[in-house]
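Hello K.,

You asked for the raw outputs rather than the summary table, so here they are, unedited. I folded two proteins back to back in the same session to keep the settings identical. This is the first:
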Amino acid sequence: MVRGRHSATLVSILLIVAHADLFGQVDDAAPVEVRSVRFAYVRPMGGSSNWMEATIELDVRGTQEGHPGFVDAVRVALNLGLQSTMAGENGFVFYRSEAEASTLESGAARFRFYLPAAIVRRYQLSGDPFAFSVDLWIEGKALPGSRTAVSTNLNTVEALRSFLDRVARDAIRNDGVLVPQYDTPFLIEYARDTPAFVRRNR
């Protein structure tokens, strides 16, 4: 149990460091930045129930040495906090998921994550989540956070820290529930608007 608490604390510290510049100056020269985060409830082809879909739109400014117009090894993580009368403790449930693109071309790129229909029904979800934040890495290096990468209610350092603490502590209980697009029935739903994902053996 002690080892688990230490692990959660380490994850929390890493998440907070990734957002350390969130309330400072925005780096206009950043090669990748979160442009918007949108949520919708969508039904897969042949399905009978809605899944929650999170679409993270990135603004990519390709600066790859030797390959101008491209950025390689872009990893995106979505931290999600949902509020529901069915969720148990404090009415909140937390999720986290990651996906990595082998390369992104300059312009707009979209990463999508999903909560299955059974989870939507179980927690009677509707509308936007209570809170969210997005983490970005390029070739393993964390990028500074930005205001567009967090929900509006995480507008102070204290609120963001409290949220990331809960994600680090509680999201592991739901590991593998919030999933990237390629692990869902929506795999080919956006054939012209899906990154080249890296899919490692797990």
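The second followed immediately with the same parameters:
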Amino acid sequence: MSEKRILAWFFIVAGWTVVLAVVLANTGFRDWYEQRFADGRTRLDYNREADPNVGDTVPLPETDVFGRPIMADGLSGNVLVVAAGSCTECSLKTLNPEAIQGDRFERVLLIYTDSAEHVRSQLKTLPGRCFAVSDPEGEAMRFLNAVWTPRFYLADPSMRLLEIQTDSTRRPKYVQIAVNRQNAEEAVP
């Protein structure tokens, strides 16, 4: 192929690429793409109206996967409820229970969609203030409208919701994640 032909094909492809980019930009493709594939994960459409109300009580079992009572007597501080999704090696890198910090809660409750046996095998042990719940039927996740994970909620000691995370791209002010320098690129934003 001659140089003139190669150059001609280059300009034809470049021109059509520009035309395609303009068409996609003017049809809302970017908004659709960001909503659907933000952070590399497919997301369901978020409907804020499906969120529970502040004051609603989170439906939970009496004990966590290790048999510890979730609603212990003497609990006086707030509870950070985390809809953590699946308890896989990948999600454990995204949200390390030992790295969750904050002064507005006394206890951390992680809700996983896997069986209790699987959650136990993946977590093995948890820090004293962290509790893990198995929700394989998705009852709590549906109640919380957990269309992205991790999703954070602040509850009072009786598990009535006080605050609800409404933006998947920003962590609520009441949650800090201590970042391990080796895993900084895997930390939750």
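The radius of gyration is 22 Å.

Happy to rerun anything if the numbers look odd on your end.

Regards,
P.
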